[in-house]
Amino acid sequence: MTALSKYELEVLLEELETYKGRHTELISVYIPAGYDAVSVQKQLEAEKSTAKNIKSTSTRKNVVDALDKIVRYIKDLKRNPENGIAIFCGNVSKIEGQDDLQLWSIEPPTPLKSRLYRCDKEFVLDALKEILEISEIYALLVMDRKEAAIGMLEGKRIEILQKMTSGVPSKVRAGGQCLSPETIVEEKEKGEIMLKDIEEGDFLLSLDFKYNKCLKKWSVEKKQVLKIKTYDNKEIISSKDHIFYYYKDKKEDGKIFDILAGDLKIGDWLVNEFGEGLEIVSIKEENGKFDMMDIEVENKMFVANKILVHNSSQRFHRITEGLTKEFYKRIADEMKNIFYENKKLKGILVGGPIPTKDEFLEGQYLPTILQNKVIGKIDIGGSDESGLKELVEKSQDILANQEIVYEKKLLEKFFETLGEKPELAAYKEEGVKKALEYGAVDTLLISKDYNKVSAKELKKIAEEMGSKIEMVSTETEEGKQFFNLSGIGALLRYKI
């Protein structure tokens, strides 16, 4: 079984549209690409039992017979075709009381994405008609600093392709990052003292035996804290938004990173005053009312309970900005992986809060080829699947204008060629058909109002010759002018 061309599909759909059942006895079955055909076969076997309850004798017979025929067909099929398959079956006799049980199977030219089983008076053809309409796609991106969703608009269908989260922590007010007042620190002159006994002006031990001056000290109340314990029984009690230093992969891998306490997990490696790794063996969360202590030191780094920590709102801001930029880069990489080589990509729509999407686009994170395809940026609130739908809804004018602009440019090229290089253009049916048969047509242009029988014949020749086919509306002045000229035209590869 081979996939139908768009032209073959169009002809077959027009035939299927002509069949009408007397009752709900025409069966449509869609098996999407990659789906297990055997499971559909089993579903249809079960449907036969249900169909035996149909009161009308003739309808019951027609539905059961059609289901039997489809089940046998799927058994013989052995595997689902690459693009999936649509199966239509039913008694299409126009004479009541006579049987004409027919089955059609279609592997579409592009992957089928709908799954369907339905008995109706007509065959369900919408998903296949949509495939005929799809000649290009639009990339969709909705984002904020916390998450993003990448999707694709094909015809009227929106498909979500990727969801992403940033790991960027929520912003906190100054003084939000804090430790237990009983936390032990080492002061340059006083030795080991509790955090609550520190005075502004004290010098506290930092990394590599350096000391940093305490600039501020204040109390904070928290409703939730974490008790973090390392393998050598060192324990520290902190708020979830306190920032620690850690090694990402293993002990002493050479590069220290920042992380929120709430993002730590068992097995992570914290850092001690010597720069050595301390493996976390337990993290316990406690709820209640806790009096905590916060300080600010020069260089934003000090040792608490033998563990390197820091607590700077400015530093926190730098961390979130860094994570945000990393997130933007990941989004750009995903967009590149999905769309960079897609020949059908016509444009990119980006939605989100004003600062986020503007930062992303103005930061030139996308490759130049994709950046140049951005046709709209829309202010929306959502950054998930609902955001993709909102983005498309708010972009209807942009999308409509894209179609109009494309059509205008296409027809301008045709009229310009016809006027300046008439040997490389053809119009009127006889001339266009001759050029098609010679294989000279690069692009066939057909008005949507052109004679449908003639259009089908010319389309078939164009398909066989590998010519590009463009349908032209009469909604623009250029489209009306083209229809009045002849409604049919061609841009040629060479003179004939």
Produce a short descriptive summary.
The protein has 496 residues and is of the alpha+beta class.
Find the CATH superfamily of the largest domain. eRF1 domain 1
Q: What is the average per-residue confidence, as pLDDT, rounded to a whole number?
A: 88
> What is the CATH third-level topology name of the largest domain?
Translation, Eukaryotic Peptide Chain Release Factor Subunit 1, Chain A
Rg (CA only): 34 Å
Task: Give the helix tally.
Answer: 12
Distance between the amino and carboxyl termini:
38 Å
Percent range for helical residues? Answer: 25-40%
Oligomer: single chain
Structural class: alpha+beta
Number of domains: 4
Which architecture of the largest domain would the CATH scheme give at its second level?
Answer: 2-Layer Sandwich
CATH class of the largest domain: Alpha Beta
Question: Descriptors for this entry?
Answer:
5-stranded mixed β-sheet, 4 domains, alpha+beta, Endonuclease - Pi-scei, Chain A, domain 1, 33% helix, Translation, Eukaryotic Peptide Chain Release Factor Subunit 1, Chain A, 9-stranded antiparallel β-sheet, single chain, 496 residues, Nucleotidyltransferase, domain 5, 24 strands, elongated
Can you offer a commentary on this structure?
- This protein has four domains: 128 residues, eRF1 domain 1 (Translation, Eukaryotic Peptide Chain Release Factor Subunit 1, Chain A, 2-Layer Sandwich); 102 residues, Nucleotidyltransferase, domain 5 (2-Layer Sandwich), CATH 3.30.420.60; 127 residues, Beta Complex (Endonuclease - Pi-scei, Chain A, domain 1); 93 residues, 60s Ribosomal Protein L30, Chain: A (2-Layer Sandwich), CATH 3.30.1330.
- It has twelve helices and 24 strands.
- The strands form five sheets. Strands 10, 11, 12, 13, 14, 15, 16, 17 and 18 form a nine-stranded antiparallel sheet that branches. Strands 7-6-5-19-20 form a five-stranded mixed sheet, with helices on both faces.
- Helix 1 packs antiparallel against helix 4.
